[in-house]
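Throughout our pipeline, every protein is held as a single compact record rather than as scattered files. Such a record has a labelled line for the sequence and another for the backbone structure tokens. This encoding replaces a full spatial description with a residue-level series of whole-number codes. For reference, a complete record is included directly beneath this paragraph.
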Amino acid sequence: MTDKSKEFQFIEDLTAELSTKELVFPTSLNVTMKIRHALNSPDISNDAVARIVGAEPVLSAYILRLSNSAMFNQTGSPYTDLRKATMRLGHSMVRNVAISVGMKQLVQSKSSSEIPKVIDGLWKRCIRISALSFVVAKRLTRVNPDTAMMAGLLLNIGKFYILNRAHAYNTLFSDESSLWELVDQWHANIGTAILESWEVPEEISNAVLNGADLGYTHRGAPDLTDVVVAADFLDGKFYSSMEGEEEEWGDLPQPLVALGLDKEKSKILIDDTRDELALIFQAIA
């Protein structure tokens, strides 16, 4: 089979998965996302949260470690009980951690071993965007920072899925650029299907689907999409460029204008929140 025929087969299979909504995830990710879904109930008790989290060993260990980190443990008294750990973090943070752990399981799946550098780079960028979304929402808007963190985490979920699935088509892509052409073409559709299957709230879905729209505009105060677009843009300018390379900004994206940010104010924001960004990165990476 030629590379072109394999590529066509890959696209056909992706299309079939989208049409049937039978997306293929590692079992560990499916379990983690079911946990996240259960945690969406506003009436869930702390005991129930502890039982649900305890059903996933990786998530349990992560929750305990995070609850005892410098970001959340101000007393120096360590917790070994899941109920107390989830109470310390709060349900919103536990949901975000569930998503982070689930996506990390997708990133680290053995099936993605053939393109680890590509996926690892995307994962690090995803975490940075999530942290930036949190601080932009907290410092500049009335948007819930935990919701912004979740939207930032999910921004590139469609790309992760395609990269993970590409492993089944050995020698499909002759070079990295051909792989990214396919990712760029299909990730929005894949991301839409994933968010629908996970029943992600519409506000977050809209932010994820419009997260690359630099011309995004609307009436009223800055919203979640403004935050995610800005975070993605700021990551590209301050973190993703080559070290020592001065980034050209050009015309400011509309969401940055809505947030009252320009190049200088953005630098100040990054500098003022550098410690907070590091703690958030540590919490969800």
Residues 4 and 172 are 8 Å apart (CA to CA). The chain has a mean pLDDT of 82. The first helix runs from residue 3 to 20. The chain has 15 helices and no strands.
